[in-house]
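Following up on my earlier message about zinc ion. Here are the inputs again, as you asked, copied directly from the submission form:
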Amino acid sequence: EELRRTLTAMPKAELHIHIEGSLEPELIFELAQRNGVSLPYPSVEALRQAYAFSDLQSFLDIYYAGASVLLTEQDFYDMTAAYLQRAAADNVRHAELFFDPQTHTARGIAIETVINGIWRACQDSPVSASLILCFLRHLSEEEAIATLEDAIPYRDKFIGVGLDSSEVGHPPEKFARVFERARNLGLHLVAHAGEEGPPAYIESALDVLNVERIDHGVRCLEDPALVARLVREHMALTVCPLSNIKLRVFDVMGQHNLRRLLDAGLAVTVNSDDPAYFGGYVNDNYLAAFEALPLDASHARQLARNSFNAAFLEPEQKRAWL
Ligand code: ADE
Ligand code: ZN
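Thanks, got it. Here's what our run produced:
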C-alpha cells in the first residue's frame, strides 16, 4: 500500500505506447457513430469481449479493425487527447507516442490528417509529448520508404521512427535502407525486437538499423552474450508487462522476466503498449508487475529513473524530473 502509493505517485516517462492502442471501445463506438462507420460488433461490451488474444497476430487483426473508425483530423486529436489526459492522471510527465500512418493511408486517409490531429493534441497536452512514426513490418520496405518521404513535409512534428506489427518473418534487415534514410534525416531510431522474435532480431536491430532503444526485448535473456552487450551499451528496453501476458509471451505475470532483466543490469522501463486492449495504462502495468514479482521500492525508483534516462529529451529537461 505504501509501495502502491510510490508506484502511482512517482513521476515517470512512458516510452512505448501505440496511440491507436489507446482507443477505448467507448470511443471506437462514438467515432463509428460520428463517422457513419459500421462495426462488426453490436455493442461496446461485445467488442470488449473480443479482446482475448492468443498471440501478437490475433491482437493486431482486431487492433487494425478498431483503427478503421478514425477518419478526420478531429478523430486523431480526440484519441490522442484522451490518452494524454489519462497519462497525466498516472503521473506521466513525458510520453513518446508511436503512431502507424500506414494503417490509415492504406484506407485513403491523408498522412497530413493523421499527423496534424495527433500533433495538435500533443501541443495542447497537460504532459510533455513527442511522436515516433512507425513502419508496419508486414509491409514492404518500399512502402516504408514511400511513407517516410510522404512524412517529410511534417519532419518537425515527429522525433523518430520505429518498427512494429508482425515480428516473426519480418526481421530488421528488411528495413535497413529506410532506417538509414531516417538516420540521415537526423531522426531517432527504435524498433520492436525480441517480443515474439528471437534474440538475433535484437542483435540485427542494433547492428543493421542502429536503433537507440529496443521495444520489448524480453527474449534477450536467451542469449547471455547479447545481454552483456545491451548492458555495456546502456541500451534501454521498453518492456510492457500486461501486453506480454495478454499476447502470451509469458503465461502469467509471476513468470515475467522483469526482475531478471533488472538483476542483469539492463536499462529496463515499464510501459503500456496498447492500454485499451491489454487491461491497463502505465500505472496498472507497474502495479500488476510489482504484485506478482519480488520487486520493491528501490526497483520502482530505478524503473522511473530509467524511463527518463532513456527518453529522447535534453539532459537539463531530464534532470528537472529525475
Ligand atoms: N503494434 C501495436 N502493438 C504492438 C506490439 N506489441 N508489437 C508489435 N506491433 C504492435
Ligand atoms: Zn508495441
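One observation from looking it over: The CA atoms of residues 121 and 189 lie 23 Å apart. Hope that helps, and feel free to reply on this thread.
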